[in-house]
Amino acid sequence: MAELVPLFVAVPLCLAFFSLITSKVFKRSSDILTFMSTLFLLLLSLKFIGTSTIDYLVGNWPWPLGIQLHIDKFSVILLLIIQVIGFLAAFYALSYMERYTAKPKFYALFLLMIAGMNGVVITGDLFNLFVFLEIASIASYALVGFGVESEELEASFKYLILGCVASAMILLGIAIVYADTGSLNMADISMFIRTYGVPKSLLFVYALFIMGFGLKAAMVPFHAWLPDAHPSAPAPISAMLSGVLIKALGIYAIARLFFGVFGVNSMIGNTMLVLGVLSMVVGVFLALGQYDIKRQLAYHSISQMGYVMVGLSIGALAKSPEVAVLGMAGGIYHAINHATFKTCLFLCSGAIEYGTGTRDMRKLGGLFKKMPFTSLATAVSALSISGVPPFNGFWSKLIIIIALFQAKLYAVAGITILVSFVTLLSFIKLQRYTIYGALPENLKKVKEVPFSMALTLIILAVLCLALGLGYPYISDFLKDTSTGLRELLTYKI
Amino acid sequence: MLVYYLCLVFFMIGIYCLIAKKNIVRKIIGLVIIEYATNLFFILVGYRHNGIAPIILPNMKGDISGFAAKAVDPLPQALVLTSIVIGFGTLCLMVALAIRLNEKYRTFDTTEINRLKG
Amino acid sequence: MSKEKKKNEGMTLITKTITNSLVSVIAMFGAYIALYGHLTPGGGFAGGVIIACSFILLTLTHSKNISLKIFPDLAASLLDNIGALGFAVIGLLGFTAGAFFYNFIAKDEPFGLLSSGTILFSNIAIMLKVMAGVFAVFVGLSIWSRIVSDTDKEE
After folding, report:
1. Are A270 and A317 spatial neighbours (Cβ–Cβ below 8 Å)?
2. Does the CB of C43 have a partner CB in chain B at under 8 Å?
3. ipTM of this model?
4. Domain extents for chain A?
5. Domains, chain B
6. Would you say residue C147 has pLDDT above 70?
7. What is the pTM of this model?
8. Most buried in the list A141, A418, C75, C136, measured by CB within 10 Å?
9. Cβ contacts of residue B96 below 8 Å, gap of 6+?
């Protein structure tokens, strides 16, 4: 079982380059290879669901010297999210990317991005995390500007500059950690800090890591790239960026490093709480005035990531362990839910753009009669993100609010409820402008989207409902995950 | 110790260049300076005063622990090699984007490349 | 008329003569740095960049067409992918002997060419990839030769 772990990185990497060779001979081969590779990775990740912690040493080098791959329950949840959303986005892109040129290069970059994200999630070594973070980030910079119009190039350039500064800060942090502790292995650093205490210069490293990974996770002072990059990307890439990349590169790295390696205290907990609350409030209030569908969804991504960060910060601030575990379980559950409903919303907006040719809400209306599947999926996911029962957004927001009340953070709980209400307002606006209302004259001839896109939307809408109704079955798994996440990393020989 | 602070000053110069200049090519140079500063800091972490190069010559094969006490740390050198390659790849992407942006907007001035607002 | 134009493009005669004899020496030096990467400083990336520099020197002194005749862009694209695939396959072949990226080739006596096992083949794969990649980037960037620079503001 442990020998299958490096395949998560090796298979997409090999197939990305192999599909570039075969697509020069046979045009459709890149579609088939991407579909098979994402399906294989999905089935492989389903095999890891019930396992205990796996440690794999690459190249059989002894423990602190080589690269170690470390999988525990939190990694398994993120691997599942990456593989499921990756498979659905690749399936959606089979019809959507026909409108762009150079489809084989799109699939090669897509597989490289999945390889990078998988690598971030399974690694147990700090510099290896940095290398895979860079692979995923550079692939996403190129994918954001894939349709080379002027607005997309501007968005890609802005994202590139900010992302490179963040990566340089992360590398500086890794250099200072190596200078202090003499090792790059996460478990080794954790054991060093436990025996010798926290060195003084590690506080600077905390700041650097929060700046660097916070930019990748689109927390509020560092969010400026997201409202330009996510609308300009092609729809399956917007879904991957918003649904998976900001979680795997940002939230996962912050959670793993601060809970598992460095150890949380109230200072880090308060920082995460402030960042989360700022992201929630700023994201949702800036989203109210947008008329571009995808730009509104991008601002809502910032807001929902604030929810996840608030959930994780309860794990650092709460006095009693049950409240901490409940808060973190709520945060992780909200990350899973956000992956499903935000992906569905972005793919629906891509379908609307494919069918009608515009993304401006003021020019749309009454699509309920002409595009039934798209309208149904939009309605279901809009209700999910607003927190309407029985869809999945309601349950995760409820758990976070209950944990906030139990941790005696009443003001933050009030802000959370207010933000949820404003989210509902802006999604009522989205639905009224796009789905309901009168059909304008120039849109009388729109048709439903092709089969692969419609099937993906229906699968995601069903997943939204199933994750909401299925909470009693996964609640124990989530609580075990948060309990495991709160422990510091060790290595048992 | 002074050397590490000077590396951070170098990093600050790169950030100043990235923020204060309006031309795209000068911003790219600022970003390259930031990456140079980070790589330089990482290499200097592995320095040992009066150390020898971490290469085992044929006449040192008997005394490995003495060699390890005298040699400069080779791990940051390998990591910085990887980091330089990553920086080079990003630089290629940046320059290609700058050329395409100039083709679309007809200028290298970032105050005029601002169609995405709000 | 066109034959005179072809003889006059590129740099002067002195540069062209020296480049013609120097390009192969530079490429050989780059191959040496890549192959002995496990003993001396350098390795695959540095060797690949030096060989790509020899092609770039050819492009600068003559013209893009001549260097594309020697190393066409289709060959660059294929070599790029074959290099990356080679590196990944070396990693996967380590599974036959124990673990991912295990050094499974028998090692010869120290300080020889074959003394490092799979590192030699990894260096060769990376050298091919970087050589093809850097040259392809240079050729790709030189397609846009019409850059408008009259709006460049002095800061």
Report:
1. yes
2. yes
3. 0.95
4. 265-493
5. 2-105 (1.10.287.3510)
6. no
7. 0.94
8. A141
9. C137, C140, C141
